[in-house]
Amino acid sequence: MQSQSRELRFPATGAKKKKTQIVIVGGGAAGLELAARLGRRFGRRDHDVILVERNRTHVWKPLLHEVATGALDANIDEVGYRAHCKRWGYRFFNGTLESVDTEARMIHLAPLVENGRELIGPHSLRYDYLVLAFGSITNDFGTPGVAEHCMALDSRAEADRFRDRLLNHCLAVSRAMVVDPDSDARVKVSIVGAGATGVELAAELFNAADALAYYGLEVFDSRRLEVTLIEAGPRILPALSERLSGAAQRELEALGVRVLTNVPVTEVTADAIVTKSGERIESDLMVWAAGVRATPIAGRLGALELTRTGQILTTPTLQSVSDPRVFAIGDCASCTLPGSERPVPPRAQSAHQMAASVFDNLTRMMSGRPLHDFVYKDHGSLVSLSRYSTIGSLMGSLSRGSLAIEGRIARFFYTSLYRMHLIAIHGWIRGSALIVTSHVHAILRPRLKLH
User: Fold this and answer.
1) How far apart are CA 166 and CA 306, in angstroms?
2) Which helix (H) or strand (E) holds 352?
3) What's the average model confidence in pLDDT over 226-242?
4) pLDDT band (50, 70, 90) for residue 239
5) At a CB cut-off of 8 Å and minimum separation 6, what does 119 contact?
6) Which residues contact 197 (CB under 8 A, 6 or more apart)?
7) Residues 295 and 240: beta-carbon distance below 8 Å
8) 6-138+293-366 adopts what CATH topology?
9) Within 10 A of 283 (CB to CB), how many other CB atoms are there?
10) How many angstroms separate the Cα of 91 from the Cα of each of 10, 184, 284, 421?
């Protein structure tokens, strides 16, 4: 395997002494924010901060359900890593992690292959400090047929594919109704998993269906949409209180969603979801959103200790329990804090807080100071039911405990989460400008992205 060192792969930047090399694998919310913080703090004089990511652009994962329905134009809201790294003083390397050699302090990246032809061979990067932030994917729990027939919303490419298929089915139903006005043709969508992703997607589908009338499908509306939300647990949105969970279910059912709880799925076929009771739920489009697991790595993660779902076990300082020079943040980290029985939950707010904690601890480690334990502050959970409603709970000093919120106040806090993300990765000036621009785009651009 060809060795990839800074001297071989990156242009010289002045001094010839070996720089402290910090490699971050994964450009999601946690990895991108950490790269921006480290680049802003250290620059390139004595440090090389390198972000490794297999995609070329970043889209905030909690918004992928809006990309999937066309409510969000990812071409406008995405962040290009190359432009971002130039602004914030880190380096971007487009590649896919294959394995980690903790003894040699090297990561090995897979070759870039296009149509069976190798464009770039396998290569390696050395590190002095490694931060793994490669995120998570949907967990199918080994259910037969899921991998072959269900879509997930783990990336922009998958969200774009769902949108294309959704629009094609809507067009087919619209044409059928033109030919036969008495046709009972419908677009049947089944969503397995009633956490935030599943619930938000179900509501957003009806918003998209109603909007299609503005774009040439005059005979199509949400009445031609048949959405089934399937949950194996006793209620939807288990992270929220029973009252808020019940309110969300009533809102979904008012829209027309068929909500099934206590219904495990045993199999997925090409055109149906099969439940434990034997019911076949016929579907044109099937989405699996039931749980997450760490993104699988093709090779090995060295001597790093993992959970059964592939997460990296960490100490309270977010260092791997196996190697103090390796940190893990975001959904790929399993950190159980002192006094807690469960690991820190895989949420966007966790990723944001972990990035800040590892930035502080890396700074301390390089200056010989003691590290601080990560402190997770649960600020609550918010779920958007598209333009129809927003519900959730706030926790912490703002609410002096737990506060259930709904309506416009909940919507304000929900949109604030994304605004905080923009400011974290772009800084106050540019981030605020992007927030203002987004309001202008909401007025000027089409209601749905249809291409």
Assistant:
1) 37
2) helix 348-366
3) 93
4) confident
5) 111, 112, 113
6) 64, 65, 153, 289
7) no
8) FAD/NAD(P)-binding domain (3.50.50)
9) 23
10) 9, 55, 43, 20
